[in-house]
Amino acid sequence: MFVPLESTSSKPATSMASTKEITIVCILFVVVVVFQLYVYMKLDDPETSVEDVDKQRREEERKRRNDLLMKALSAF
């Protein structure tokens, strides 16, 4: 009763990815790599700035102590 129809216009299934698909995958790969580098650089910067801030804080504390010591010595 039903006759199977053979479609002659359909292309045979290929397992190869198209150029467009390969291009999209490559672009996404590059985006991920760039994002990882950006995050690495952003995480690396605060470590150095924290060290710099710590050095500045120690230097200010040392100056404050020296100023207090000089004031105490000049009072005598």
Question: Can you offer a commentary on this structure?
Answer:
- With 76 residues, the protein is mainly alpha-helical.
- Helix content is 75%, strand content 0%.
- It starts with 18 loop residues before the first helix and ends with a helix.
- The model has no long low-confidence stretch (mean pLDDT 84).
Secondary structure elements and pairings:
Layout: H1 19-75
Transmembrane segments: 21-41
Keywords: Membrane, Transmembrane, Transmembrane helix
Keywords:
transmembrane, transmembrane helix, membrane, mainly alpha, 76 residues
Q: Multimeric state of these chains?
A: single chain
Biggest sheet character: none
- Compute the separation of the termini in Å: 120 Å
- Arithmetic mean pLDDT: 84
Helix tally equals: 1
Helix content range of the residues, please?
Answer: over 70%
Enumerate the spans where pLDDT stays under 50 for 5 or more consecutive residues: none
What spatial form do the alpha-carbon principal axes imply? rod-shaped
In percent, how much strand structure appears in the residues?
A: under 5%
Order of helix and strand elements from N to C terminus: H
- Which structural class do the helices and strands define? mainly alpha
What is the number of strand segments?
A: 0
Radius of gyration: 34 Å
Keywords: Membrane, Transmembrane, Transmembrane helix
Question: What's a concise summary of this model?
Answer:
Keywords: Membrane, Transmembrane, Transmembrane helix. It is built from one helix and no strands.
